[in-house]
Design a protein that fits this description.
The structure holds two protein chains of two kinds. By secondary structure, chain A is mainly beta. Chain A is built from two helices and ten strands, in the order ββββββββαββα. In chain B, about 5% of the residues lie in helices and about 50% in strands. Classes of the chains: A mainly beta, B mainly beta. At the A-B interface, strand 7, strand 8, strand 9, strand 10 and helix 2 of A face strand 1, strand 5, strand 6, strand 9 and strand 10 of B.
Chain lengths: ~210, ~180
């Protein structure tokens, strides 16, 4: 297997922000293509149930570690992280509060991601009513659908919060195999200032970008 | 043969007249480009955000091309639609971006437009009933040849994050 490269990911699911919900826990799983193999670490995990902070941040802090190494011969199926946040409703049932998804960053180094979290909503008024009556909200049978490019086109969702995730990414052997993952020194990308500020909410990483 | 991987996400859209929107997307590439793996078109979920003014789609893109010629560098074209409470869809915007040529991660905002209602009557219809003119042939979005005939209105923007990985371009003497 000399022909393979390694991507090593460390990081943590730091916290989440849901204005309407409390006492939450999360499940995460990594998804990747068929050429990818886990060499060490866990590809799934569940956090503790955590209560909100009492200050204006009102964060639910998990501090849940992510640590996985994968190897592959092909960047297709680049690993992605799927996060599902659950909470308890008034009757003690587990109810999903949000799903989120992001790719593991392609760039080397430390990254911070703020994943938008969304829940599926009922398609019709009747379903809405039965959901309210039985306390069973719509949810994905298999949240892995989030990491796939198809099968989501019929779903209606409502985004209600964010999950904060940090990543550290290391790679091995990619350039030896002829892959160029970062820009060459000569190429230059100029992004207008206002674009960056309008997208700043999406990507905490961009705050660290230097502007000239 | 050189290879190109495009890995990223259609993050979401904002500044559209309504927040309940979804997006149909597709990647077009020239004849020298062969799709090896991955989906080159799709449709996102419909998001009606309660928190922010961005409708999030978080739709993954992961495609793998084998490249014979630099002509026909791939483009991502987007069509944003509004889904209303009666289950009808209405066009909210067309747009395209070229896939960035330099390897690395790119955060891109794609600005969109749609055909404008030509007459006052059409304007009123669009205001009260929805609907209105749309492109019969969406390929027009990708070409500059026949745009001059259109009268359009400016719509919101779509945020896209694309990572580009190139392989063996240097062996063929291509500088990017």
């Amino acid at each position: 297997m000399e022909e393979s490269f390694v991507v090593s990911i460390t990081g943590q699911i730091e916290s989440c922000e849901f204005s309407r919900h409390d006492e939450l826990y999360c499940k995460y799983c990594f998804m990747f293509g068929s050429d990818w193999v886990v060499t060490s670490g866990l590809e799934e995990g569940i956090s503790q149930v955590s209560r909100k902070t009492n200050d204006e941040r009102s964060l639910v802090i998990w501090n849940l570690p992510l640590d996985i190494s994968l190897k592959s011969t092909n960047p297709y199926g680049w690993p992605r992280l799927v996060v599902c946040v659950y909470g308890l409703d008034a009757f003690g049932n587990d109810v999903v509060r949000g799903y989120g998804m992001c790719h593991v960053p392609l760039r080397l180094g430390s990254h911070f991601r703020r994943l938008p979290m969304f829940v599926p909503v009922s398609a019709s008024q009747l379903q809405k009513f039965t959901a309210w009556l039985t306390g069973r909200r719509p949810e994905y049978i298999d949240p892995r659908i989030l990491g796939l490019g198809e099968g989501r086109e019929t779903t209606r969702v409502s985004s209600e919060g964010y999950t904060n995730v940090s990543f550290n990414v290391m790679r091995k052997n990619m350039s030896q195999l002829g892959y160029q993952v970062g820009p060459s020194t000569e190429a230059r990308t100029v992004v207008p200032m206002e674009r960056i500020t309008s997208m700043g909410v999406l990507n905490g990483e961009m705050a660290n970008m230097s502007l000239h | 043969m050189a290879e190109v991987h495009i890995i990223g996400q259609i993050i979401g859209g904002r500044s559209f007249p309504s927040k309940s929107i979804f997006c149909r997307w597709g990647i077009w590439a020239g004849s020298g480009w062969k799709l090896i793996e991955g989906l080159k078109e799709g449709q996102t979920q419909v998001d009606s955000p309660v928190l922010d003014d961005i409708s999030f789609w978080c739709h993954p893109i992961d495609v793998h091309f084998a490249v014979k010629s630099l002509q026909g560098w791939p483009k991502l074209h987007l069509q944003v639609y509004h889904l209303d409470e009666f289950g009808r869809i209405e066009i909210f915007g067309y747009g395209f971006i070229h896939i960035p040529s330099s390897p690395g991660v790119h955060e891109i905002s794609c600005l969109t437009w749609r055909p404008a209602a030509a007459s006052l009557l059409q304007k009123l219809r669009r205001f009260f009933l929805g609907g209105g003119p749309y492109l019969r042939n969406p390929d027009l979005v990708l070409s500059s040849a026949e745009r001059y005939r259109l009268r359009t209105e400016s719509m919101g923007e779509v945020y896209v994050e694309l990572g580009v990985i190139l392989r063996n371009f240097q062996t063929f003497g291509v500088e990017v």
